[in-house]
Design a protein that fits this description.
Number of strands: 0
Largest sheet: none
Oligomer: single chain
Helix content: over 70%
Structural class: mainly alpha
Strand content: under 5%
Order of helices and strands: HHHHHHHHHHHHHHH
Amino acid sequence: MLAWGAVVAGVAAPFVRRKLRLPAPAVIGTAALAPFGLSVATPRTRNRDVAVCVLQMWAYFAAYQMPNDDPEALQRRVHVDYPVRIDRAIGLGELPSVRLQRAFGAPGRIQWREKVLIWPHWLWFFVPHSAVAYLLFHHRERFPAGAVQMYAVFDLGALVYWALPTAPPWYAAQEGRMGAAAGHQFAVRRMMAEYGAEFWGDAWGPLYSYVGGNPLAAMPSLHFATSVMAAHLLSEVGRGPGVIGWSYAGVLGLALVYLGEHYVVDLLAGLALTEGVRRAAPRVAPALGRVSRGVQVLEERVRG
């Protein structure tokens, strides 16, 4: 009963946090216990593995959204200027997003090339989890390590979003914080939002408000970080899946910069996060193994 109580509380806490004014640490901690509670309460099956991953992402989603529960406070804390300066240095005097939109964009219109990049961006919501699911159903022996690495990237990224809230290029342009380069100002467009309103119509506002619950969480780019992790995991099980994974990561990286969603430095930070998790994985594996064995002991006691 205690284990199931942890699951119920972990699912409920993010739902009721605003109504009950729950403190963020309590919400995150309670939600983070839910996957462990389910692991203790039920025997291991593929369905349980899927449910544990869903609960893990539910906890992440709460941690990702909560800084924006008070938008005005978040806006006071957000960092806007430092990525502009870094990306301008990377672009040799001009922001890469500006260069791309000026060279290939058409003011006031969304062309076919933008649509080709917007759809991979939207499909990202499925890509990291699809890679983990591929391991679960086709290479089950690799699933535990792969899932831990993927969701570690999500969780560590969420910590940075709390500690260092950073605005994306479209927000900096909207706030007039891009500055002038070469004697003129070029406003970075948010092409995804433009096309979203065109394609989804009235559904776009509610849809984006739910999945994009924290617009000031750009550093590091978890879009890119998790896509690179997916490419690594897929490469380990075959050349074909690896080619698909790396091709997608490359296209998404271009899309994120061109569409004004991320700076190049956001992508580099995401890449560093993923590679750091990959490098640390063998070192933390023994500790994670002890945690796993402890959960198994509790599971056996509950079932016995």
